[in-house]
Design a protein that fits this description.
Blueprint lengths: L6 H17 L2 H9 L6 H11 L17 H13 L6 H15 L1 H13 L4 E4 L15 E5 L2 E12 L6 E8 L2 E8 L7 E7 L5 E13 L3 E3 L6 H19 L3 H15 L11 H26 L1
Parallel strand pairs: 1-4
Antiparallel strand pairs: 2-3, 3-7, 4-5, 5-8, 6-7
Helix pairs in contact: 1-4, 5-6, 7-8, 7-9, 8-9
Length: 301
């Protein structure tokens, strides 16, 4: 296995290194982080216009070069060495990755703006009660005619004070979805409390109070399909596993218990059960049913 950088990756590393060593003044960067806007827009424009690093890990059809994790590593290493405060990870890596997975004309158009350096995108997913469970989302989006109405709150949305667009996770009647919010065109229905974090970055706590969004603001969920589709897939997998285990009366009862558990899952109605939890529960039920059947057969002998 070859761990050496390719020639293109070396050019990316060397070009970004030269740019930062000659253009990225540490005193200006510290001043921007502590008392200024929190970043240097002219440096960001240089990333896009002079170096093209904003599209290094994004697809060619949006203006990128279709790089991968190695390109991200090279850029992150250079920015870390220069103590850069620009929102590369938040906009390009996190938001860019979600937009690429979402697909569609709206996401594609926004990715083109990211590559061009004209859009800053931040993810607003964490909530006060979610902790490490990203799927525990209380923010809701209700359909009202041709619009979505967003209600709820998010905390510690990194780079949100700098962002031209937000990616917001919210729960709909069909499951968990990802919504696009244009901060410039959303003057009402959103409140933001901005602050500086301990590492001199910008973050914000957000409150959505009846924020109205167009129909195409719903991009998708992070997996590219609705949670109801996920539920149907899990039910089908359990059916298949139990059918392989046998076709006796005990198996039919076990199959019914598992299907009922999936259909009534609190995860689908906004509770805390995750897909992984359901899979583990199904495996436990299957093992217990087979053990009980074995005991009954031995007792009958």
């Amino acid at each position: 296995m070859d761990f050496n950088l390719s020639k293109e990756q070396e050019l990316l590393r060397d070009g970004l290194g030269r740019f930062l060593s000659t253009r990225y003044d540490l005193e200006k960067s510290r001043a921007a982080a502590k008392t200024g806007a929190g970043w240097q827009p002219d440096i960001w424009r240089g990333f896009a216009d002079e170096l093209g690093v904003l599209g290094a890990a994004l697809p060619e059809d949006v203006g990128g070069i279709s790089g991968g994790p190695v390109e991200v590593m090279v850029i992150a290493e250079a920015l870390g060495y220069a103590l850069g405060v620009e929102p590369h990870v938040d906009t390009v890596v996190v938001a860019g990755g979600l937009l690429r997975r979402a697909g569609g004309p709206v996401a594609t158009a926004l990715l083109e703006k990211v590559v061009a350096g004209t859009a800053i995108v931040a993810l607003a997913a964490a909530e006060s009660g979610s902790g490490e469970q990203w799927q525990d989302v209380l923010t809701v989006a209700d359909r009202d005619g041709d619009e979505w109405v967003l209600r709820g709150s998010k905390i510690v949305a990194m780079s949100a004070p700098l962002a031209t667009h937000l990616l917001v996770t919210a729960r709909t009647s069909g499951g968990l979805s990802l919504f696009l919010v244009e901060t410039d065109s959303a003057p009402t229905g959103i409140k933001s409390h901005s602050y500086r974090t301990v590492d001199d970055r910008r973050a914000a706590d957000l409150v959505f109070d009846g924020l109205r969004l167009p129909a195409d603001a719903q991009l998708t969920n992070p997996y590219g399909y609705t949670l109801r589709d996920r539920q149907q897939l899990l039910v089908g997998q359990r059916h298949h596993r139990i059918r392989r285990a046998g076709r006796g009366p005990d198996d039919r009862k076990l199959r019914k218990r598992l299907v009922d558990h999936c259909s009534q899952s609190t995860w689908m109605s906004g509770g805390c059960d995750s897909p992984d939890h359901l899979i583990g529960r199904a495996a436990h039920e299957l093992r217990r049913g087979l053990v009980e059947r074995g005991r009954a057969e031995r007792a009958g002998q």
